[in-house]
């Protein structure tokens, strides 16, 4: 389907055709083809960009899920450490009489607790 003569003139002008080119038989077809190619190229680029954006969004969502999982594991590990420190502290306090020298029953717990408290 050919564009109307008025549209042919618009297309030719958009393509920068000269007056001679406008009067030449089929010149508008060249300009129309250039315009169609530009539109096609723009559409292909837009579709590729949309696809890349979709893939990028998917990758970001996967990374966000992985980050959430790691955060949950870190939170659980922090809770476990807190429980262990509290338990060791309570054990050392309740059995301090067994931790009265370098060669005592609870020396490893005493040293571990001292290290944890020192490192904060």
Question: What this model shows, in words?
Answer:
The protein is rod-shaped, with a radius of gyration of 38 Å. Helix 1 (5-14) packs across helix 3 (27-94) and helix 3 (27-94) packs across helix 4. The protein is mostly helical and 120 residues long. The chain has one domain. It has helices spanning 5-14, 19-23, 27-94, 107-119. It contains four helices and no strands. The model has no long low-confidence stretch (mean pLDDT 78).
Task: Quickly describe the structure.
By secondary structure, the protein is an all-alpha fold.
Tally the structural domains: 1
- Helicity range: over 70%
Query: Sheet with the most strands?
Result: none
Category by helix and strand content: mainly alpha
The amount of beta strand, in percent, is under 5%
Could you tell me how far the N terminus lies from the C terminus, measured between alpha carbons in angstroms?
A: 79 Å
**Residue-averaged pLDDT, rounded?**
78
Number of DSSP helical runs: 4
Count the beta strands: 0
Could you state the order of secondary-structure elements as H and E? HHHH
Task: Give Rg in angstroms.
Answer: 38 Å
Topology:
Elements: H1 5-14, H2 19-23, H3 27-94, H4 107-119
Helix pairs in contact: 1-3, 3-4
Provide the descriptors you would attach to this structure in a database record.
mainly alpha, 80% helix, 120 residues, rod-shaped, single chain
């Amino acid at each position: 389907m050919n564009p109307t003569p008025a549209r042919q003139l618009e297309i030719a002008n958009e393509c920068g055709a000269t007056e001679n080119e406008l009067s030449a038989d089929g010149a508008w077809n060249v300009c129309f083809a250039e315009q169609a190619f530009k539109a096609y190229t723009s559409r292909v680029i837009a579709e590729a960009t949309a696809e890349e954006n979709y893939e990028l969004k998917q990758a970001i969502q996967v990374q966000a899920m992985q980050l959430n999982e790691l955060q949950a594991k870190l939170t659980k590990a922090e809770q476990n450490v807190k429980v262990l420190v509290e338990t060791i502290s309570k054990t050392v306090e309740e059995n301090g009489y067994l931790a009265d020298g370098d060669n005592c029953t609870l020396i490893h717990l005493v040293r571990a607790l001292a290290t944890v408290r020192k490192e904060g």
